[in-house]
What does this fold into?
Amino acid sequence: MTEHQPSSEYTLAMRVSRQSIAVNLLLSVGKLIAGIFGHSAAMVSDAVHSASDVFSTLIVMVGLKLSGRAADENHEYGHERLECVAAILLAVVLAATGAGIGISGIESIRSAQTLAVPGLMALWAAVISIVVKEAMYWYTRWAANKCGSAALMADAWHHRSDALSSIGSLVGIAGARLGFPVLDPIASIVICVFILKAALDIFRQAIEQLTDQAASPKLEREMKKLILQQNGVRALDLLKTRQFGSKIYVDVEFSADGDLTLVQAHDIAQRVHDQIESAFPMVKHCMVHVNPLEEKEEQA
It folds into this structure.
């Protein structure tokens, strides 16, 4: 993929990111208005959380833009790992958001007696936020899986964290209206734990992609099956895979009859190479080496 010819996955990821920014801007303004006029400090905090999502999505867009740059003389293997850097930044932002919600909940418990009773406007704003943000989570998650984007998946979880925050606001607002204001901060602390767990998972996945972790065993089994199905492949000697951002590099060694000409062996290797890159779109490059079949292997 180059900057002048973006892939369909890149185009989808950028479109979803722009939509996320638009939705978060509308939600943050709506929540702020509802929080002020509905006398709900929880909803005002929720509005700030939605506004922070705009920043996180901008990080995603920058990461996608940089990772999509063509290889150059200083980065001959491309820039895909920059997307992992964006995912790590988002994990840090998400963890900070979760910690902030938890700290706010603890402080609210200590001063629960001073909490004002919020109005119905704040209650309805929380319900709308939950529905919209949960929908954005599933939409962004679908796009992230389709694109194989760790940064976009991190942004999806940021949507989920906002939905969880709004659930906490809903419980707190409803509880305050029913005479139990302490429910709001308690819910915030529980939500904090879930958000921190999501941030840890995103961070760990990004680190794995930065440290050349192998592809999943299932994917490697599918590759092995495909290679052994190719005419001329007598045995699979080696299959290695490594994550490179959202892409995968593959190294293959297989045995072929030792009496083949160089051209014939090359044709088999080329076919293996083309089949792997065609069948598995996440594979950026497949390196293939052909070994002559050992005589003892032929006798066996």
In short: The domain at 217-299 is CATH 3.30.70.1350 (Alpha-Beta Plaits). Confidence is low (pLDDT under 50) at residues 1-5.
